[in-house]
């Protein structure tokens, strides 16, 4: 697709601040769109169809996968989560800037399906800082933290497969850097 230059993937190991950086980016630049993911988990109180997620049954989600209608997906805690191809295509067709926040495996699918997309790997300032961030969440058991750190090491090994790397020392500064990259790669004045 001609507008693939408007598609940006932000990925990296757990705890690198992907969601925080993209949230800061979109707060400063609301014209940049983020797709709505599909999931098989039940809506939480206050969540709305098409705004927070597209809620699907397991059978519906598996059919989307079989029909090649999902650009990336994951099975986590007993539920599917993924990005619908239609969500990406409709935004690109309209010439919108699109940012996807996905794991390193999903990023590989995006590279295959949208070779003109820019993939950005967010790095923590150090592995020690990554561990500090994961522990600072206060939501994980020691075993879970160890598992996430082992997974993070594997994810960090994938960084050279990305278009470029940014170090997230500070969220706002990293979001500004990401915006500069988006403007340059999409050919926009900033």
UniProtKB/TrEMBL annotation:
Transmembrane segments: none annotated. It catalyses: GMP + ATP = GDP + ADP. One of its GO terms (cellular component) is cytosol. SMART domains: GuKc (SM00072). InterPro entries: GK/Ca_channel_bsu, Guanylate_kin-like_dom, Guanylate_kinase, Guanylate_kinase_CS, P-loop_NTPase. It is found in: Cytoplasm. Residues 5-183 form the Guanylate kinase-like domain. Essential for recycling GMP and indirectly, cGMP. Belongs to the guanylate kinase family. This is Guanylate kinase. It comes from Faecalibacterium hattorii.
